[in-house]
Amino acid sequence: MRTFQLGLLAATLALATGLAQAAGGEIAVIVKTSNSNYWQNVQKGANAAIGGAKGYTMTFQGPATETAIADEVNMVENAVNRKVAGIVLAPSDPDALVPAVKKAWEAHIPVVIIDSALADSGKQYYQSFLSTDNKKAGELCAKALIDRVGRTGKVAIMSYVAGAGSEIGRVGGFRDYLKAHSQLQVVGPFYSNSQMATALNQTTDTLTANPDLKGIFGANEPTAVGMGRALEQSGKAGKVVAIGFDGNQDLQGFVKDGTLAATAVQGSYQMGDLGVKTVISLIEKKPVPKDRDTGVVIVTKDNIDQPVAKNVLY
Asked: How many Å apart are CA 281 and CA 262, to the nearest integer?
């Protein structure tokens, strides 16, 4: 009998050890849109992380546009329904995604939020938040603009999706810094809904309506690209000081040719890489930080070819 009990105990321990080693399953990475170089760079980081994780698979998806919030909600709910092992989510709206994240929490599925904050009402339902400190990033962009245009005159803000968590911090930090450190008059913000063509048209109209404009800020990738193209088409490139945000090939070209004086580049690859690694740690019951700043680099013509910039450009 004792031999049987010892054998049963050994079998139980072996099963438990096997289960611990077999931790794995699907990681669902869900972002604001799949149609952006920025989010595709997040995907590259996520792919790198999953490639080094045995027993795990990854799915990556996002709506057609950042304003298709209901589609993103459905993607999270579908991930919960198919009982994924963990979710990495960049919420397109701070409030609308809370109920879906709550469903994941109720299903005991760990959630890591990246890029943009979830509303305070949802903080209890996710375990870690990895992002750029958008307020700090906005302040750095404002400082870069003031350094180049001075403390008086008129500047414009070309923003993206009103109410998005990253937009609130980024544009809010930009405006607060201008108010505290200059007498610059602000035109806007104008909201492109992260559509490049919309940003191009809005910037063109703003330049026409404000011939005395000294500076302009494009607050995310598609908005900054549209802004840069409008500056080129209007003949204002290099004459109106422009600060962009993010670092795709178009924006790198604008920095190199002087259309942009600078662009603030987030660690998008790091968000994907660390997002997947963090959710795997949660699945495996390892401790993770509640908040983690993935950083920002102000890229200019002077440093664009140096490692500090190359490590974040895409």
From this structure: 36
Q: What is the pLDDT of residue 11?
A: 41
Cα distance between residue 111 and residue 107, in whole Å: 11
Distance in angstroms (rounded) separating the CA atoms of residues 30 and 45: 13
Q: What is the C-alpha separation between 135 and 108, in angstroms, rounded?
A: 32
Tokens 């298709």 correspond to: 68
Residue 311 counted as domain residue: no
Token representation of residue 50: 């999953």
DSSP label of 151: S
Are 249 and 138 found together in one domain?
A: yes
Looking at the fold, whether 146 and 249 belong to one and the same domain comes out as yes
CATH number for the domain harbouring residue 124: 3.40.50.2300
User: Within this chain, do residues 91 and 240 fall inside the same structural domain, yes or no?
Assistant: no
- Flag whether 314 is in a domain: no
Rounded to a whole number of angstroms, the CA Rg of the chain reads 22
pLDDT digits (tens, 9 = 90+) for 117-146: 999 999 999 999 999 999 999 999 999 999
Rounded to 10 degrees, the C-alpha dihedral 104/50/89/80 comes to -20
